[in-house]
Amino acid sequence: MPMKSSLLYNPFNQIAGFSSFIPGLIGLLVITWLAFITGTHYNGLSHIAFARDSEYWFFLTESLSNWFFIAVFMFLSGLSLSKSRIRAIDVWGTTLLSRLPFVITPMIRTLPVFQSFLIQSWQRYFLHGVYLASLIWFLILLFHAFKISCNLKNDKLVASFIISMVLAEICTTIFLKSII
Amino acid sequence: MNKKLPLICPSCEHHLQVKQLYCENCQTEVTGLYSLPVIAQLPAEDQKFILDFVKASGSLKNMAQNMKLSYPTVRNRLDEIISKIDNPDADEK
User: Fold this and answer.
1) Considering the domain boundaries, does residue A147 fall inside one?
2) Is residue A3 part of a domain?
3) Model confidence at B93: pLDDT above 50
């Protein structure tokens, strides 16, 4: 059984529980702060927008809801489908740490050349490309987080991962639209 | 040389059983048909995990610390072994 795997795509063989929750929470606050100062909105997984149009609390609500609904649905999937005694802190912590790739886009936006741009500009396409890459990285991390913290395998793992993501996306979108 | 106890039949891949035992001291031979103990039927790495688990007084947290692995990784490994003990024929197919 290969226990040691790359920290880049699966750090959860080594890190889970509070060890993932604390750095994950710090990461989420850093992402939120960078998103606030650069006006980078994460509206669920399927949409990213650039506008300095909201107060800090709204960016924080976006970050928290993007994580919270995924964590809740994954935890419920684990509780109902896994034969293991899963711990909530493992699911909260590993899903939170999985969000770290989302720091890249707002970090790039702090560079002067990306601070203001037109809708049809290379900067916009570049940022969307970066976002897509960080989204793929996030999904790989999240999949491993779910697999390890909930101990699911094969069809159960893939089906419950997809269902959890879809339900979380729907809830996040409805929630964020309701508070705008 | 540290010889490895064969567990699976190389011909049909079923679990092997003990047919003969031998005393090195008095050369007594015992012939019969005995099943291997459940733990002896597990692969060597699973047996080592069980030993480590007992040495850690059954604490998965301590084991995770000693092995430098996360708690759910160690718990999943234990659950995998429990599953093998409950369904010893599951991995034969």
Assistant:
1) yes
2) no
3) no
